[in-house]
Amino acid sequence: MPAIQYSPGVRHDLEEILLTETQIQRRLDELGKEMERDYAGRDLTMIAVLTGSVLFAADLLRRLPLQVRLDCLGISSYHGQTRSSGEVTVTKSLHLDVRDREVLVVDDILDTGLTLVRIREMLGKLGPRSLKFAVFLEKEVPHHENFRADYVAFRIPNKFVVGYGLDYLERYRNLPYVGTLKPSVYESHGSAL
Length: 193
Ligand code: XMP
Description:
5 helices; single chain; 6-stranded mixed sheet; 193 residues; Rossmann fold; 8 strands; binds xanthosine-5'-monophosphate
């Protein structure tokens, strides 16, 4: 399949590519194998945290030759800007029952840890048999919420990134790689980092 040509408006907004499509797909092969071993012979309930984890969840799902049930949890913690508001609200609740299930929560990025701490509290009350967390990215910052993910695809510097599900003002999620945006992009929206 020929490589997709993104419009110059998209490509030219990026300052630096931190993770290429090839790096991401190779790492997911490894992560998929690790999960396959860990969950062998068990039914898995995967919960994808909307919206940022959709590409990560989809790429993981097709690597897991297991019985998997999929649900999505809508969480809003950023409100369209580049810094955490500190507030976490549920925008879409689960429809699957997770009681006595092996639950794996899949999220895009672990930054302060606030979102996943809240999700762990919420889901823990529903009585899962096990509750694990996989994140596509973990920022190299001290996590003040002291949250540790069970699976981490990549650790990245403490920079705001877009692509592979991650957005700035709901854009760039469709990029198959991860990068940083040029300062001019933020300046044009009145939100310099
Ligand atoms: P916390 O601080 O709760 O943040 O761990 C998790 C959520 O914050 C968003 N986030 C980002 N989104 N680029 C993004 O597009 C980033 O660099 C970034 N850092 C944090 C994201 O929604 C994540 O689920």
